[in-house]
Amino acid sequence: MLRLGVVIVIAFVLQAALSMIQMKHFSNEFVRLRRKGKVACGRQSGGFHAGAIVLFQIDDNGIIQEASKLEGVTCFARVKQMAGFEGKYVGSLTGEEVPKTHKNLRKAIKDASLTYIKYVSGEEIEQPPSPFQRISHSFRTLVVKE
After folding, report:
1. What is the pLDDT of residue 76?
2. What is the side-by-side strand order in the sheet with 38-44?
3. Could you give the number of structural domains in the chain?
4. What is the pLDDT of residue 74?
5. Which of 79, 104, 107, 108 has its CA 20 to 30 A from that of 114?
C-alpha cells in the first residue's frame, strides 16, 4: 500500500514538472512573438481529446505575419509553426482553414478571430472559467436541484 502511494506521488510530481517545462516553452514562444508586435491568441480545451492554443503575430491592421499552434493531449506537446496563414486578416478566420480532423484547433482559430474582433470593437473579453470554478458551479447546481 505504501509503495502505491509513493508511486502516485512520484507520478504527480513528474507530471507537474513536465507541465511546468511545457508552460515555460509556451511562454518563451509567446514572448518571442510579442516582441515582434501584437499577438492574437485563441484556445480550446480538449479534456480527453487534444486541446489547442493558437498564436497569431499580427501587424497593426490585423494581418497575420506568423502563426503558431500548441496542440496535444500530453505535456510533451510543443509549440509548432502553422503555415498558410500569413497575409490573412485574423478577423476573417473561421477555422475552415485546417482539416476537419483537428476539431479543437479549428475552434481555437475561431476563438482567436472572435477575440480579435471583440478587442478591436472595444468589447470586454470574457475569461473562461477555471476548472475549480466549473466544479464549484456543478456542485452548486446539484445542491440547488435537491
Report:
1. 80
2. 38-44, 51-58, 64-72, 79-81
3. 1
4. 79
5. 79
Residue in this structure with the C-alpha cell 510543443, named with its chain if needed: 78
Residues 6+ apart with CB under 8 A from 39: 30, 33, 55, 56, 57, 58
User: Where is 68: in which H helix or E strand?
Assistant: strand 64-72
Q: For strands 64-72 and 51-58, give the pairing.
A: antiparallel
Tens digits of per-residue pLDDT, 104-132? 889 999 999 999 999 888 888 777 777 77
Instruction: Count the alpha carbons within 13 Å of 67 in the hemisphere toward its beta carbon.
Output: 22
Structural domain for 57, as ranges:
2-145
Long-range contacts of 87-91 (CB under 8 A, 24+ apart): 87/63, 88/63, 88/64, 89/61, 89/62, 89/63, 89/64, 90/40, 90/56, 90/58, 90/62, 90/63, 90/64, 90/116, 91/62, 91/116, 91/117, 91/120
CA gyration radius, the chain: 18
Asked if 71 and 109 count as a contact pair (C-beta separation under 8 A), the reply is no
Decide if 67 contacts 113 (C-beta within 8 A). Answer: no
The pLDDT of residue 28 is 93
